[in-house]
Amino acid sequence: MLATGKAVKVSIYLSEGSTHQGAATYSSILDFLFFRGVAGATVLKGVAGFGADHHLHSSSLVDISDRLPLKIEFIETREKVEELLPMLEEMAGSGLIELQETEVAKAATHSSPGKTPASTHVKIEGKAQLMQIMIGESDQWKGRPLYEALVQTLRAHDLAGVTVYRGILGYGAHRRVHKDKPFHLSHDSTMMLSIIDTEEKLRAFLPIVEEMVEEGLVVLSAVDVIKYAPRTSEPDGDKGQP
């Protein structure tokens, strides 16, 4: 967590359409910063601009460009920035990274002082719980896909991790068979979220699941964790949880 005093502000300038290992670069960088314990980061989207290619990019109601400029900003200690910089340079590709000396006049404080930051998540060994949430692909939560909202909420509540699976065949409470057909984009498939953490943390999260999931199935199962530890470096691919 940042303290008052000398720090470094990092600005990363990207094109909105740029990708890193198959995902949007800005999203990959944000995940990297989150899991490496950076105090906070913000993604800002430009409405017009040009870069090294000197092509002007702008947005309009008629033509929504995917080449608009994006800026990621975060503030950290000099030591932390130097630790992260090599990976950030690789992920940013042809983007521009700017470092600026700054001073933290007032440090942010946690709204829940006793909460453990995600970057120092305790290693799980032995007995744990598996939570599986089965919902429909078309289910919504406040105007967005429910499975996406659940993933964001799980991360915000410091759960160890979650993987989302998309069903290709099955049926549910309504006894309708749902099948994913080639060349046919179905929006009625089953989505399964799989989360492993301590029983205490999962049961504490259950009231939120009950509030968000109006129709679906939620199960808890006892599991033995053979190995789980926070990543010390960004892997080639995110293996997620079972």
Topology of this structure?
Blueprint: E1 5-15, E2 19-20, E3 23-24, H1 25-35, E4 41-45, E5 48-50, E6 56-58, E7 69-76, H2 78-92, E8 96-104, E9 126-136, E10 140-141, E11 144-145, H3 146-156, E12 162-166, E13 169-171, E14 177-179, E15 190-197, H4 199-212, E16 217-225
Antiparallel strand pairs: 1-7, 1-8, 2-3, 4-7, 5-6, 9-15, 9-16, 10-11, 12-15, 13-14
Give an account of the 3D structure.
The chain has 242 residues and is an alpha+beta fold. It folds into 2 domains: 100 residues, Alpha-Beta Plaits (2-Layer Sandwich), CATH 3.30.70.120; 108 residues, Alpha-Beta Plaits, CATH 3.30.70.120. 21% of the residues lie in helices and 36% in strands. The strands form 6 sheets. Strands 4-7-1-8 form a 4-stranded antiparallel β-sheet, covered by helices on one side. α1 runs antiparallel to α2. The radius of gyration is 21 Å and the shape is globular. It starts with a strand and ends in a 17-residue tail after the last strand.
Question: TL;DR of this structure?
Answer:
This protein has 242 residues and is an alpha+beta fold.
Keywords for this entry:
alpha+beta, Alpha-Beta Plaits, four-stranded antiparallel beta sheet, 4 helices, globular
